[in-house]
Amino acid sequence: MAKQYKTLGEDIWKNRVETINAELFIFTYGSIVAQLVKDFEDYEQVNKQLEKMGYNIGVRLIEDFLSRSGWGRCTDFKETMEVISKIGFKMFLNIAPTVTNWSTDSKVCSLILDENPLNDFVELPLDTQHKLWYSNILCGVLRGALEMVQMQIEANFISCVLQGDDISEIRVQFIRHLQEELPNADD
């Protein structure tokens, strides 16, 4: 099944996605992070702002993902993470993280990013060691997109090559399925 996801992700990337200049995207993102660091002067606040920005992007990105991929409802959290990894990440960033380190109850996993275009041309100061998660916007995108398909998750970076770690890893935890809430009837 993972091969099917990978093939679909590559097909969508090649044939159904308008791309932008990667360097422009990377430098624009870097400018945003630099401005947040300057504005907040507190890495924890910068991380929160990046996650919040990502959440807002994910809320909107899911519609584009669903329409371009034609993907329906996933059967479980494991399938959801494979689809996100092989199709979603490929579609928007041209990467395919590895889904691994599953918990015994299949509610927690890791996304290992062998490559991360957001990290290109970036060198963090030493004082940011495990304080600033430069690509934290990705955690917000995951949370926002999955919330729109009624899945509440928590996503956090636990290691990053920019911090001197061997790998970049996002830990994703399924919390619960959300109930679709209908708006209150106007009387």
From TrEMBL:
Keyword Endoplasmic reticulum: yes
Record localization: Endoplasmic reticulum; Golgi apparatus, cis-Golgi network
InterPro entries listed in its UniProt record: Bet3, NO_sig/Golgi_transp_ligand-bd, TRAPP_component
Keyword entries, A-Z: Endoplasmic reticulum, ER-Golgi transport, Golgi apparatus, Transport
Top-rank taxon: Eukaryota
Primary location: endoplasmic reticulum
Protein's GO biological process: Golgi vesicle transport; macroautophagy
One Pfam family linked to the record: TRAPP
GO cellular component, one term: Golgi apparatus
UniProt similarity note: Belongs to the TRAPP small subunits family. BET3 subfamily.
Protein name: Trafficking protein particle complex subunit BET3
